[in-house]
Amino acid sequence: MPKGRRDVLLRVANVNPASVTTHTDRVLYSAIGVFVVLYFVYATVGGAAFIDAGSNYQHPWYRWLIGPMVAAGVVAYDRAVVGRVSISYEQLESTDPKHFLKKPTIGLYAGRLGLALLFAVLITEPLMLTRYQGEIDARLNEVHNQQLSRVDRTGAVATWTNRLAQLERETAGDDAAVQGLTDRAAQKRQDARRLYQQAVDDSAGGGVTRAAGCPSGGSCDQLVRRSRSLDDEATSLDVQAGRLLDTQRAGRAARSSEQSELTERIADQREANEVAIKADSGFGARTAAMWHLVTSDFWGVGVFYLGITLLLVALDCAAVGLKFASRGNAYERNEARIARRREHEATLIHEREIQDARTYGEAMARVVADGIEAATHDADVVRDSAERASAVLRKSVVVPAEIRELTAHNGRHHRPLHAELFDDATHDGRHRRPPRTPVVHAEEQRALPGESAS
Fold first, then answer.
1. Which partner for 19 in 174, 334, 401, 424 could form a disulfide, CB atoms 3.0-4.6 Å apart?
2. Residues 264 and 320 in one domain
3. Which residues have C-beta within 8 Å of that of residue 29, sequence separation ≥ 6?
4. Is residue 178 part of a domain?
């Protein structure tokens, strides 16, 4: 296989192919790359199944957009874990391999494995819910029926049902009262018919007296009268029943209206309860149903559920597990050597730059000190030259005795000095114009050194 194709799996595993120098490391990190690719497919399906379970298995189209995003995030995490090498930057000058890598810590391993297991569980659970969808639907149906029965026994439906039963009992009481009068009237009519039949039999000579006819005051006549009396009583009872119905009509109408309203309310509430309860079949409800199936039928469902879950979790943790198992191999040592060498070179360059900066600063300080010293020396030369020139000038120029007296006096002079030098001796010393050129007498002129007398 060409080298470029062999390095594809190493790039997928986020490994530097240049540092993979042994066959063992190449096989190891190529296997990690294969697990990463397989896990991308597995995480894509798991993320899509999670969205599908959250939508009550309505199969939304966007689940295949969210699934790859979840898979990309999990794969990016695994690649970051695999590609990371814990390099130690202490004792950079040491060549001992035990100083190349940092010592592992419990928190590092526990954190990585914990996150890997978390991703595995979140992605594995939706797949398991899809696997046992039929059993979960049956369990949810049972749970929903229990919830509907419990809601009917409590809440608004129960209150309305009790009120409806009370109205039905009131209506039944009214019906019983009317029916009692009607039954009594019917019974009396039945008795009247029986007595009349006896009177007919007695008048035909088939009675107790065996006398034909129905004379007044006789047994036949008494039976007829009793029969007619019972008919009158039955009619009276019918009239009472009719009057009772008239008095009950308003109450019956009110109860009938209330019963219709309550029946409609109960039907609407039951429909709303059924919709709400049936909607409670999302990810949480299905997870609870799955857990009930696992605990109630462990050998039928739980064993396979746990086995498949552990298999998928092992697939998720395979890349990270191989990374932990291969700590300190040749690849990590090569990466550590390269990184430590670069850090050591950068440290040496940094130290050299600091030394150069210090040397440059010292040289600049020395140059500035020499410049200050030379400037001081030049000032001394100028001052000595001025003093020498002044001395030569004092020796060459003859100063009048008056000037010497004035210059020798250390007090204040009320008369200005230039008044002794200029002809205008009466001037008070305040001039708005420049002073005039002093007049030197001819007998006071002296030749300066180096000048020839005219």
1. 334
2. no
3. 9, 10, 13, 15, 20, 82, 331
4. yes
pLDDT given for residue 136 in this prediction: 85
DSSP 8-state code for residue 87: B
Question: Both 278 and 301 in a single domain?
Answer: no
Both tokens of 78, joined, read 């695994």
Cα–Cα dist 13/35, whole Å = 9
CA 128 to chain centre: 25
Pair 235, 318 in one domain: no
Q: How many domains does the chain contain in total?
A: 3
Task: State whether 59 and 33 are in the same domain.
Answer: yes
Q: pLDDT per residue over 57-115, tens digit each?
A: 778 888 888 888 888 888 888 888 777 777 777 777 777 777 677 777 777 667 767 77
Residue 247 has pLDDT above 50, yes or no: yes
Q: Tokens 């229990």 sit at which residue?
A: 146
pLDDT at 440 over 50: no
Helix (H) or strand (E) holding 241: helix 219-279
212 φ/ψ angles, rounded to the nearest 5 degrees? -80, 160
- Please tell me what DSSP assigns to residue 347: H
Task: Go through 1-30 and write b for each residue having 16 or more CB atoms within 10 A of its CB, e for each that does not.
Answer: eeeeeebebbebbbbbbebbeeeebbebbb
Based on the fold, state whether residues 121 and 143 are members of the same structural domain.
yes
Give the ranges where 55-154 is alpha helix by DSSP (H).
Answer: 63-83, 106-131, 133-153
- Helix axes 155-203 and 219-279, enclosed angle (nearest 10): 160
Query: What DSSP assignment string belongs to 127-189?
Result: HHHHHTHHHHHHHHHHHHHHHHHHHHHSHHHHHHHHHHHHHHHHHHHHHHHHHHHHHHHHHHH
Q: Are residues 12 and 147 in the same domain?
A: yes
Verify that 10 and 137 share a domain, yes or no.
Answer: yes
Q: Which domain holds residue 452?
A: 413-454
The answer as to whether 369 is a domain residue is no
Residue 19 CA to residue 27 CA, distance in Å, equals 13
Identify whether 42 is part of a domain. yes
pTM over 0.70: no
Residue 180 lies inside a defined structural domain of this protein? yes
214 has a pLDDT exceeding 80:
no
Nearest to 228 by CA among 201, 173, 189, 198: 189
